[in-house]
Design goal:
CATH architecture of the largest domain: 3-Layer(aba) Sandwich
Helix content: 25-40%
Number of domains: 3
Strand content: 15-25%
CATH topology of the largest domain: Alkaline Phosphatase, subunit A
Low-confidence stretches: 1-24
CATH class of the largest domain: Alpha Beta
Distance between the termini: 48 Å
Radius of gyration: 25 Å
Length: about 575
């Protein structure tokens, strides 16, 4: 009994702050831009600011600085430390979820759930803010990111899955959710059939075609770069890949043509990736690139007067710090001592690994002099030549060993070695290569003066955004309308799930009216297309996607589909 009472007290804690926001105090806006520097702990912001100020004395401030307004506690449904899938899902849907879940209601975990979860809704897809604004307000929608497009954060806005890594489910949902603008990584993940669907529906599709994207005048566009993710900003070839600032400006220019308004999510994806790799160069230079994108969004919002901008990480990562125990007297070091060496780095750890693998061993010292501002010591050279995936090492692969290598430099991969080497020249520290649970910052611009202030939970931030954009119905109401169980929607009809041996996790649902054999629906999951009639000659194009969940053998689809069988 005590356990139940405690759970419902916790639930009240969620609800009460939402009431305290008083919807009448959150003035409505036309457009919403949500900007997420993935896995960005506050020290990344601090060190990035110092790096910018040190290298550009006339730029002591970040673009986000005047708009810092509070903090956000992010968490999974049953754990205080979340990963990108459930944390951004919560921003988008209002529900914390489990690790790996993409905008999907979690299974309950009564002993550990932070707030009570409804077992009857387990695995149900949850409508996102993006989807709601598209469906109910006819607003344009867009995504900008530097990872591959079905990665957790972009997927959280426009797809649904309890397995974030199942791109076979996520990719077609993102294609068929009819987003207006998509710019980021993932050329190899878009199939020819999916590109054909896009072009048939008015999209221009560009693959590794920067000039094509820049010249495009169409309202609807997909522009993808890199087989999977895009390059880190400092490693990027500007003749081949755009900056995240340019992608943001492109998206805003197109989306703002919609007279009803728009939703845009911009993710600085690889701040998180660099944090996982303990690479301070990637973390800070990608964050500064993201901050410039924030500057572009804020510039538009100030001029437009109808746009809310929310800038917030989804979680922390790596336990990054300016100052570490091994760096004696670090608290008395000057800015030159702390940041001069760091400012010399011209490549990420990944960039250095690629560079030394592309040039002969005789060029190693020249590479480090040119791109890092130092030469390798004998011990560092020895360690480098014994890394297993260093292609140009003079040491034969079978003779390489960790013996004799300084433990702080030893690594199983060349990229990890580079991260450790570059960090060893600084006073930066890391506690982990994984996510961390501290609160994250929020920066915001509200054109009518009611930004989110103070400390909020990720649930409350979703509530604030829904209030600000003035959704005519709640996200829960929409979820029940467009993601109902097929067994409920078609309870009066015959349902047959047809499983192909080639696509066992993507079956087809056939629904028949026994009294009228001409009334039949053929439903393919993860798309917005339903075929009508025994010969499937007519097509219905939905404004939402259909989701199949193999864990409970259920299709989630609009309740309105039953009308086609009457």
């Amino acid at each position: 009994m005590k356990r139940v009472t405690l759970l419902f007290l916790l639930l009240a804690i969620v609800i009460l702050p939402a009431q305290a926001n008083r919807p009448e105090e959150v003035k409505s806006v036309k457009n919403l831009i949500v900007m997420i520097p993935d896995g960005c702990s506050l020290p990344v912001v601090s060190v990035s600011r110092w790096l910018q100020w040190y290298t550009n004395p006339d730029k002591p401030n970040l673009h986000i600085d005047p708009y810092l307004s509070g903090t956000v506690s992010t968490f999974s449904s049953n754990a205080p430390i979340g990963d990108s899938a459930p944390t951004t899902s919560c921003y988008m849907t209002g529900y914390p979820s489990r690790t790996g879940y993409v905008s999907t209601h979690p299974l309950p975990d009564p002993e550990n759930d932070i707030y009570p979860m409804d077992p009857a809704r387990a695995y149900q897809p949850l409508v996102t803010v993006l989807e709601a604004m598209k469906m109910t307000q006819q607003k344009a929608t867009g995504l900008v990111f530097t990872c591959e497009f079905p990665h957790a954060t972009p997927a959280d806005c426009s797809a649904h899955s309890y397995r974030r890594g199942n791109y076979h489910w996520i990719v077609p949902q993102m294609v068929h959710n009819d987003l207006d603008v998509v710019i980021g990584g993932g050329v190899s993940l878009l199939t020819d059939d999916q590109e054909e669907y896009l072009t048939a529906n008015g999209y221009k599709v560009y693959r590794n075609n920067l000039q094509g994207m820049r010249a495009d005048k169409n309202d609807k566009m997909w522009a993808l770069y890199g087989d999977r993710e895009m390059a880190y900003d400092i490693d990027r070839n500007p003749d081949e890949q755009p900056s995240i600032e340019e992608m943001t400006r492109q998206a805003i220019e197109k989306l703002s043509r919609n007279e009803n308004g728009f939703f845009l999510m911009v993710e600085g994806s690889k701040v998180d990736w660099a944090a996982h790799g303990n690479d301070p160069v990637g973390m800070c230079t990608d964050f500064l690139a993201f901050d410039r994108a924030c500057g572009a969004a804020l510039e538009f919002a100030r001029q437009d007067g109808e746009t809310l901008v929310i800038i917030v990480p989804d979680h922390g990562n790596s336990g990054f710090s300016l100052g570490k125990y091994a760096c004696g007297g670090y608290d008395k070091l000057t800015k030159d001592q702390l940041f001069h060496q760091f400012s010399q780095y011209k490549l990420t750890a990944e960039g250095f690994a690629r560079k030394v693998n592309s040039e002969p061993y005789s060029e190693v010292q020249n590479i480090f002099r040119t791109y890092a501002g130092f030469e390798l010591s004998e011990d560092e050279l020895y360690a480098l030549t014994h890394i297993k995936d260093y292609k140009n090492s003079p040491v034969p692969a079978e003779e390489r060993s960790s013996e004799g290598i300084e433990p702080s430099l030893y690594s199983g991969s060349l990229t990890s070695f580079m991260a450790k080497l570059l960090t060893s020249k600084t006073c930066f520290g890391f506690t982990t290569g994984g996510h961390t649970g501290e609160e994250v910052f929020i920066a915001s611009y509200h054109p009518k003066g009611t930004p989110p202030m103070g400390r909020r939970t990720n649930v409350e931030l979703n509530q604030y955004m829904c209030q600000a954009v003035g959704l005519p119905v709640t996200l829960d109401e929409l979820s029940h309308q467009v993601f109902a169980r097929h067994t409920d929607v078609f309870r009066d009809y015959t349902c047959e799930i047809m499983v192909s041996k080639h696509e066992k996790d993507s079956p087809t649902l056939i629904v028949k009216n026994k009294k009228n054999k001409n009334k039949q629906l053929t439903i393919t999951p993860f798309t917005n297309i339903v075929k009508v009639g025994r010969k499937a000659q007519e097509e219905i194009r939905l404004n939402s996607v259909i989701v199949y969940v193999d864990a409970n053998d259920t299709f989630y689809l609009p309740t309105s589909l039953a009308e086609y069988l009457k």
